[in-house]
Specification:
The protein is of the alpha+beta class and 174 residues long. It has five helices and six strands. It is globular and about 45 Å long. It comes from Gilvimarinus gilvus.
């Protein structure tokens, strides 16, 4: 019980410090090679619902808290240096949004990103792109668009195959 209490108090203090520091360094490092520099500014029919941008300063308290549990997720989180999650309401047909988004994803592919998953069906448009350096994933971009919402997740760091499996499993839960 004492260890749990110390962990909770420590977590609260670290999160508080992380939030204070986050005002100066809040989002993912856009200079990181794995940052997916895609633009949604010109995509008509998307209305921002939630934007969560975590850089290393804001991720450190989460990584520390997860490390206290000795779980596999702690190892996975330790390899992440940035997380950018954006949820949008879709106010246009999926085909219109995906055609507008196509240019941004094509630009990523021209810069070395590899499309590893592409799903086009009547209800969903899914793309997973990765940027690798040998066996290490430097960046992962997951985009899912349907008639109601669009989700874009960009993870930066030095991820390995096991880490990618954790990421895909977590995105399936969302």
């Amino acid at each position: 019980m004492k260890k749990l209490l110390i962990t909770v108090i420590g977590f609260v203090l670290v999160v508080g410090a992380g939030v204070a520091i986050a005002t100066a360094k809040s989002g993912p490092d856009q200079s990181h090679v794995g940052y997916a520099n895609y633009s949604l500014d010109n995509v008509k029919g998307l209305k921002s619902k939630l934007s969560l941008n975590l850089g290393s300063w804001t991720l450190k308290p989460l990584i520390w808290a997860a490390s206290q549990s000795d779980s596999e997720e702690a190892k996975f989180l330790d390899n992440i240096s940035g997380l950018d999650v954006n949820f949008y309401d879709v106010n246009a047909p999926t085909e219109v949004i995906t055609s507008q988004l196509g240019n941004s994803l094509s630009a990523l592919e021209a810069n070395g990103w590899e499309k590893i998953v592409a799903v086009n069906d009547a209800k969903e448009y899914v793309r997973i792109l990765t940027l690798t350096d040998g066996d290490v994933f430097k960046g992962v971009l997951i985009s899912v668009i349907n008639e109601r919402e669009a989700i874009f997740i960009n993870v930066t760091g030095s991820l390995h195959n096991d880490d990618l499996q954790h990421l895909v499993a977590m995105s399936n839960e969302w």
